[in-house]
């Protein structure tokens, strides 16, 4: 009887630890259709879409879906730096010195290679309070004088709002893993010299957007404007940087309702922990009574 009760107790303790441990990543985003399910503008800054669009069109993706960096994050390019994962947001790195996490997109970090204007200085409706980040897991391989940096995991995440006193640096409930397939879809909306026709992109992704109006509004950033229209479902989601005019800063997208949601989530987790503790105490009491 003692062996059985001991095993049950250890199972309960293991369950308790599982409930209190940090969940690495909540969801995986595999397509633009998945992006449309995210509550941008409320739970997640809309600026994340601008940062993700830039990233998808900056990295290299070969025919084998291998992703490689085109810059050195150790130099601080594009607001990048090493990320220690001390709060356990992501999985523990494999053993060895080849793997490292890097965070990208700090708008306030001084760098010789800044992010493009549409990411660094968007209109006020798209400002994300410098909270959104991209995190990559990189495997570094040295080949003579050259270092190859292969990315095997990509995440989009965000800092907690400053007015919320949380212990963790990043919000685990709004950290998403980005697949290579999603990056490839976003790359189709490139704003480079070889842009896809808007009519083709509109039909391919089932959009009802007026491509002529988007072209007139966005100019050379028309493909980006179409992407935002598809994801956000807004007629005029953003004014291109070339036509940018100063506007009054809008209040942060975070509202008391979102704060209440965070508290409700925390309350639910606390209730689960209390239930498990009560079960453990009940089992221990029965075990003691039978001795």
TrEMBL record:
Under the GO molecular function aspect, what terms does this record hold?
ligase activity
| Residue ranges of the TM segments | 272-289
Record key words, sorted: Ligase, Membrane, Signal, Transmembrane, Transmembrane helix
What residue stretch is flagged as signal peptide? 1-24
Q: By what name is this protein known?
A: Phenylalanine--tRNA ligase beta subunit
């Amino acid at each position: 009887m003692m062996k059985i009760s001991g095993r049950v107790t250890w199972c309960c303790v293991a369950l308790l630890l599982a409930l209190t441990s940090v969940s690495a990543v909540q969801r995986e985003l595999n397509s633009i259709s998945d992006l449309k399910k995210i509550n941008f503008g409320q739970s997640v800054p809309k600026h994340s879409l601008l940062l993700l669009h830039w990233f998808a069109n900056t990295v290299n993706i070969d025919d084998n879906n291998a992703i490689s960096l085109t810059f050195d994050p150790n130099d601080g390019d594009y607001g990048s730096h090493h990320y220690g994962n001390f709060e356990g947001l992501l999985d523990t790195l494999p053993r060895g010195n080849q793997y490292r996490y890097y965070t990208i997109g700090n708008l306030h970090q001084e760098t010789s290679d800044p992010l493009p204007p549409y990411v660094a200085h968007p209109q006020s409706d798209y400002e994300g309070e410098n909270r959104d980040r991209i995190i990559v897991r990189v495997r570094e391989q040295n080949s003579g004088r050259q270092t190859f940096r292969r990315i095997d995991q990509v995440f989009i995440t965000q800092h907690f709002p400053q007015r919320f006193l949380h212990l963790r640096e990043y919000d685990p409930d709004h950290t998403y893993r980005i697949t290579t397939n999603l990056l490839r879809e976003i790359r189709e909306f490139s704003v480079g010299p070889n842009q896809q026709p808007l009519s083709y992109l509109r039909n391919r992704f089932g959009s009802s957007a007026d491509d002529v109006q988007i072209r007139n509004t966005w100019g050379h950033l028309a493909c980006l404007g179409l992407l935002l229209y598809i994801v956000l479902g807004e007629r005029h989601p953003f004014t291109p940087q070339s036509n940018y005019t100063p506007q009054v800063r809008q209040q942060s997208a975070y509202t008391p309702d979102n704060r209440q949601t965070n508290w409700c989530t925390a309350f639910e987790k606390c209730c689960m922990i209390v239930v498990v503790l009560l079960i453990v105490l009940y089992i221990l009491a029965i075990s003691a009574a039978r001795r």
